[in-house]
Design brief:
This is Nucleotidyltransferase domain-containing protein. Keywords: Transferase. GO terms for molecular function: nucleotidyltransferase activity. InterPro entries: NT_sf (IPR043519), Polymerase_NTP_transf_dom (IPR002934). The model has no long low-confidence stretch (mean pLDDT 96). The radius of gyration is 21 Å and the shape is elongated. The chain has a 5-stranded mixed β-sheet, with helices on both faces. The chain has 2 domains: 119 residues, 2-Layer Sandwich (Beta Polymerase, domain 2), CATH 3.30.460.10; 135 residues. Helix 7 crosses helix 12. The protein starts with a helix and ends in an 8-residue tail after the last helix. With 261 residues, the protein is α+β, with helices and mostly antiparallel strands.
Length: 261
């Protein structure tokens, strides 16, 4: 919408006068053309390496600017970055960061390769999708087949609900990986799964049943539906070791547990 473009232009004009700023990348709904009249303007403000290090030290990594907005209630929602930050994001960012750069576009830059840096972030190598399917199906199997059963046996309400929620998170992310779709965030997971092509019939209902009534029956029904849908790339024999490696040994491997990736 024009008032968003006017706000973005005003922000860029302000940013380009700052010698510590080397680029502005618009993200979110304005970049996608799906903004509402009252939407904010999301940007990655790309700084010099020195200025980014200072922002990190001062814990000024995300903030809003209102004075450039050309419409009531509007503001620019800023996340700071640097060229090195974006390179690292392409190598090892979590999914919400990668997803946030889908459709992102450079609106102003002093860097010749900023567009290439941004475009590389949402791209995952094909073999990583297979690894993700294996990792997440291992989580779903352990949360449903061990932790939820333990919760029922011990009459542990906290563990019961924790296991049910984590079973559906892991199952949902297994399906996202099958569809080669980045995870945007928990707030969006239900809607993302509803829009996918490769999802078992009745999946949403089985998920809702497990979350509303966590017990052995709903857990088994959910997992039966998930397991029968696709030949997941992880044997039963490898499941426990995969779960331990990915969730309990992250301190050793240096990798975040899959849930936070």
């Amino acid at each position: 919408m024009q008032h968003h473009q006017d706000t973005l232009a005003a922000f860029v004009e302000q940013a380009r006068r700052d010698p510590d700023t080397v680029g502005v990348v618009v993200t979110g709904s304005v970049a996608h053309g799906t903004e509402r009249p009252d939407s904010d303007v999301d940007v990655q403000l790309v700084l010099t390496e020195e200025a980014f290090a200072e922002a990190w030290e001062q814990n000024r990594l995300s903030y809003v600017v209102r004075e450039v907005a050309t419409y009531d209630g509007g503001y620019v929602d800023i996340k700071v970055a640097s060229a090195d930050f974006l390179r690292r994001a392409a190598e090892r960012a979590d999914d919400p960061m990668r997803h946030s750069m889908l459709g992102a576009r450079v609106v102003w830059s002093r860097l010749d390769n900023l567009g290439e840096l941004v475009a590389a972030i949402p791209v995952l190598p094909a073999d990583l999708w297979q690894e993700r399917m294996a990792s997440f199906i291992a989580q779903a199997r352990l949360h449903s087949g061990y932790f939820l059963k333990q919760a029922v046996r011990l009459e542990n309400t906290y563990l019961l609900h924790h296991a049910a929620v984590h079973t559906t998170i892991a199952g949902g992310r297994t399906l996202l990986a099958l569809n080669r779709t980045l995870f945007k965030g928990h707030k969006y997971l239900e809607g993302m799964l509803a829009s996918l092509e490769l999802v078992p019939t009745g999946y949403a209902e089985a998920t809702a049943d497990l979350l509303a009534h966590p017990d052995l029956r709903t857990s088994a029904a959910y997992m039966d539906l998930l397991e029968s849908y696709h030949p997941w790339p992880l044997s039963r024999e490898q499941t426990l070791s995969t779960f331990v490696r990915d969730n309990e040994l992250g301190w050793y491997s240096g990798h975040l547990p899959p849930e936070y990736s």
